[in-house]
Each structure stands twice: as structure tokens, then as C-alpha cells.
Amino acid sequence: MDYRKKISLLFEEPFDRKEIYSLLARPKEEKMGDFALPCFTLAKKAGENPVALAKKFSETLERPSFISSIEPAGGFLNFKIKDEELATSVIGEIFEKGENYGSSDEGKGRVICIDYSSINIAKPFHIGHLLTTVIGAALYRIYGFLGYKPYGINHLGDYGTQFGKMISAYKRWGNKDDIEKRGVTALNELYVRFHSEAEKDESLNDEGRHYFKLIEQGDSECVKIFEWFKKITLEEVNKVYERLGVKFDSYNGESFYNDKMEPVLEELSQKGLLKESDGAQVVELDGMPPCLLKKADGATLYATRDIAAAFYRKKTYDFYKCLYVVAYQQNLHFKQFFKVIELMGYDWAKDLQHIAFGMVSLEDGTLSTRKGKVVLLDEVLNKAVEKSLKIITEKNPDLKDREKIAEMIGVGAVIFFALFNGRIKDIVFSYDKVLTFDGETGPYVQYTCARCSSILEKGGKYDFKKFNPSAILNQEGRSIYSALALFPEKVKEAAEKNEPCVITRYITDIAQRFNKFYIEHKIIEGSKEEINAKLCLTYAVRRVIINGFNLLGIKAPDRM
Fold this sequence. Notes:
54% of the residues lie in helices and 10% in strands. The chain has 560 residues and is of the alpha/beta class. The chain is flat, with a radius of gyration of 28 Å.
């Protein structure tokens, strides 16, 4: 039910109903009502005092049957929906739309390119990749839920001298059978050994550059070895992606754009933007360092390939937005190459957005691929699942399918933890905090969802056609159904801010509200009519939590 629209229709000229609609918001405190209209802008246009205008509205607006009160509060006008009306309309809509509750078609016909995860070939998929992967995947689902056509891109790190170094290391110390058996772990050991040996013998770096040049020139042996490294890496990381529920529509990485950079450089030169600086080629930028696009030795850089990729994506997908889910350390890089495209005269440069996020580390410190100090993401998931299995076995030793449920809880807990705070915040990963069944955690919300499933199973049949809200028209009940009404708004907010934590925190709040209701009110007690109403509310809570979980990439077990 679009109550904003219904409320805006109460206003007559000279006030613009569309403006009223856009101004209506949720009050900061629930006790103030369901919607608040700030009268400051309206008062300024009408030449009136906002406090006086709010009071005037409260006295002159005709109160329709679905509203219980219209009250002024300073320069705000607060509207409260009748309890029976709100409960019936919200829960009815959830029953009607089910898994589509909260979705919309606002993005129909618009493509959103999302560049996320972007793993490095022949390097471990470690916990440092967690945030970009789960944030990007959540945005992919959120935009899709709102009717957009999301296009997930894994911009593989498959270009650079490090691959020449890897070939050098493999030729010197590698064992094919060992690499086939141990995969990226074995490759990473070679990478670490190369850098250790190169500290003693600098000529190894020259050898690495030589082998990379052979890759660029299409040397059959080097290309074959490199493609083998790539195959092993993707096979390994795809197992993790499958556990996380992550997918991509494209794996076009840096090497894909190797033959697409020259036209961009030529255009920059033709437009007088490309300047020479100590033998290198740069684009000078106001207020920030110049954007280096070609080194003095002719080598291209990340920026060169990213600009070429942006042009390719615009031409191929004609995106509405192109999002780059990359850590905040790359802020300057994105500002620079976005500005270069703007200076080239392309207005779609404004549609390129850097979705920055903070760093993730373990309690014992940060991570370093070069030194070999990494914690594989798969190992993190395994340990979380192992701990989950131990916890649920202690809590419920007779639980069937414990291993399957432990996988849902452990993996879900890791994703939930990563997506709970604003993405720009650095987080320290702690298994104890992640897997607690109390507080603001994935297992807590999953347990609440499982509790709802258990209640619905024990309660038997429930039918919204026989719904009479009287049994839930109490403080705890209103707290729930008024919050359930917010889910469509929260999905839109998550997309507008590119913040999956909006969903994570919202379903945590729903779980907390329901558990309070559960404590205060016996759900399977009372008349058939009362039980039916409480079961309908329980169904609505479970449905909305699952819809939220689906957007985050988390599974909800029916029992725990």
C-alpha cells in the first residue's frame, strides 16, 4: 500500500502533490507516527512560518478513514495510520507478493554493470577478498530485485610482470603434479619463493620481465603455462563462489583489454589531453596528480586498461551505471580515470561510481600475499562451518541434516558479518563474534527465522482470508507490522546508497521485534481467530527475513 501517495492526495493547490510525496518521510521516533511531512520548504514557498503551516494543515486537512491522527510537531506534520488498516494492508501485501514482496520494476530497461571480486590469477583467494565479493554480489541481487538488469563482471587480475615471474619460478622450482594436486597453494608458494630469491639475486626480476614479454608476444609455451595457471585458479575459486552463492556474467580481465588501449590513447592524443612527462605519457588533472597512462618504457598501467574497459562496457552494455566495488585505497585511481573520461567529453563519466569499502583482517593482524601471510577464504568458511556444527550439536543433538544446516549457518554468518556495517568501515574478523547466536549476528537472525518456521509448523493451518488483526493490535504487534511495511523502502535505500548493510540491519531489527512479541504473547494460544492472526504475522516476519536473506546471499534453515 502506497500510503505516501494516499496522504499526498489530501493536499490541494497551491501545494504540489508530487512535492508532498517526495517530502514525506518516516519520523525518527515511531511514537510520532508513521509518516512525517517537513513543512519548511512548503512554508518558504507560501511565505508562511513552518510551525504555523503545520498547525494549519492539522486543522484544515480532511482526515480520511485510514488515518487515526494528523498532529503538528514543530515544523512537522505527523500522520498515523490506523492500526487495523496498517496491519491488514501490510500483511495482506506480503501474503499476496510472497518472495516478490519489496521488489519493483523501477529499473526496467536499465543495465547496471558491477565490477567486483576481481581475483588475481595464481594468487590465493583470501579473506581480503571477502568484502568486494559479498558486497558486489549483494548489490547484484538488490538491483535485480528492483527490475534492473545487473551485469556482474569479474575483472580478473591476469596481466603484468608477476605472471612472467610466476613462469620463471615454475620453470626453476615448479612441479606439475604438485600444482595439479595443491592448486593455488602450490602456485603461491612459488610466488613467495621467487620474491625471496629475488632479494638475493636481482637478475631474477629481469628474467620475470622477459617471460612476461613473451606472454605479450604470444609465445606458445609461456601462454600455455599461463592459461594453465588461470584454469587452476578459476576452478579453485569457483568452488568458493558456489558456497557464497556468487555468480558473474563476465570474466573479462585485464588481458582482455590489451588490444583495446591504443585507440583510447590515440583519442586522448588527438584531443590534446595526452602529455609527455619524463618520457612517460600522462593526462594532467586539476586538483590531483596527473594520470599516468604509459611509462617511459612503453608499459601500460591499471588506469590505461580501466579506461579501455569503461569504453568497452559502455559500448557493449550501454549501462545506466557502472559500479566498481574496490577498496578505498584506490580512491585516487578511480577519481583520476573517471576524470580522464570526463575530460574526453563523455557525459556518461558521471555514471561511473567507485563503491569503496574498508579492509578486513583477522585479530592477529593484516594480510600479505607477497610474504605468504594469507588466510584463505575457503579456510575461513570451513572453520566457521566447523564451529557452527559444534554449537548446534551441543544445542540440539537430535537435529537432522546437521552438516547441511551447519554449512548454511557458518557461511551465512561470515556473509552477514561482512555486510552488517557500512562498507567503508574497516572490520576485524572474529569467529566468536561472528558465530554467536545472540545479538546482531547472522545466526541470531537465522535462529529467529527457524523459530518462525517451527511456530508455523506447530500452529497448523493459517489463512489470511480469515485474518482479523485484533490479536496483534498491541504495542509489540504494531512494532512488527509497521516495520514490515518498510521493507520495500529499505531495498530502494540499499540501492540508492549502494549499502547492503541497510538490509542486514533491517532484518536484524525485524528479528529483535519478533522475539520481543514472542516473549510477550503466546502465539499458539487463544481462540482460532486470535491464533490465525498471530500465525499470519509470524508468516509475514519469516517471509520478509527470507527475502532479505535472499538479497544478501544467505540461506535460512527451517530448523536449528
